[in-house]
Amino acid sequence: MITRLRSIREKLKSSLFYTPMILTMVGLGLGQLFLWADQQVTNIPTGLTATVDSARAVLGVIAGATIAFAGIAFSVSLLLISLSSSQYSPRVVHGLFRDPFNKRVMGVVIGTFTYCLVVLRAVRSPLDGGGEAVIPSLSIAVALLLGITTILAIVAFISHAAHSMDISKILHGVTEAAIAEVSAQWGEGSDTDAAREESTGETAPDDAFVVTFERSGWVQQVDHSALLRALEPGATMWLDTVAGRYAIVATPLCRIVPTPSDPDVVERRVRHAIGVGQTRTAQGDVTYGLRQLADVALKALSPGINDPTTAQDAMFHLGAVLRELLVRNVPTRHLSGEEGRELLIPRAWTHAEIVGLAFDEIRLASAGMPTVQIYLLEILHLLTTSIASAANGDEATAALRSQADLALEVSEMADLPALDHERVRSAHRDRFESATSDLSNQSID
Length: 445
Description:
Layout: H1 2-14, H2 18-40, H3 52-87, H4 93-97, H5 100-122, H6 137-164, H7 167-186, H8 193-201, E1 209-212, E2 217-222, H9 224-230, E3 236-239, E4 246-247, E5 252-257, H10 263-272, E6 274-277, H11 288-301, H12 308-326, E7 334-336, E8 342-344, H13 351-365, H14 370-386, H15 393-413, H16 418-444
Parallel strand pairs: 3-8
Antiparallel strand pairs: 1-5, 2-4, 2-6, 3-5, 7-8
């Protein structure tokens, strides 16, 4: 149930429909409310009174203008999404869909349009039936205020849209979201190295009961507590997937020992604990932020874009997210439940794998760009320095130094002038070889 609720919440946050729909309902309710208030108020100030023709003209103009502005707002949003996808990466589009400001502006515009329609329908002249004119002056005054608010909201939307295309702002948003997810997922519970080796060294027996995926898609969420509850007392589960992996129909989801007494019930409960969707999301997946930032850097390094400055920007933001992962112990791979239930997660990410995910492709893509290689060495050096005091820094530090050595090796293989080769060698020597010498001297002393 928790997995389903989280999935629904994620869809609501990523949808451009629900916020405008809610504000449309608000506009409908406000229209009815102020029409009722007009019936109760008798002494309306002269400045708020109107004629039937002026009321219809004002409401018609506001309604027509707001729906035109709504079309502009939707067009600008689609243009931003298209440009961001082609210029930076399709992976950053997800963040633009989640921007609450854009959804609220669209909601205000469409809500104002709905309000004007409701009030316009109530306007009557003596010839329209009933023999008495109906001019809801108070409602018309509120429509004027909403119209002015809508115009200001559109101006603010255009300003926001222009600034939202700033790549540094996009990267900052991705970085903040990724760090928040890391804090939520890796904030509590950790395994020691010995416990990790013990929990991952054991493999499921060949005769284990296998639960397979019913449909293909991205694994968006994994509810470990629900998986433990799905097991029968004394059972052990080996989980064959993690959030951020792709699931294919009929491939193993998990293996259970001993075979459940009611396999159908256990299968259903296990599958309900795993959220599978059409797209990859950051919720539950601490590596998705790394993937987004790495993709922006790779796009910038592609021959069609050739924007090393954007690549540098993305790489430094990537380092900020990676640092948050490396200073934390990976979550435990061995969970225990009541009545002897055990859950093993052998496919969970390690620090070394996360470092490779962040830099392997960038290192290869930037082989012929000595300036970008120097950026990469600088980021690796900063990360090594930043995690030096972390209790679990040995594995991460070794992975970072390995990346630095590979970057130098790749640069040596590139067809570059001798001076550029020497620049990269010097950058590597200053940041890593001198640091190694300092550590050796401290050990001798």
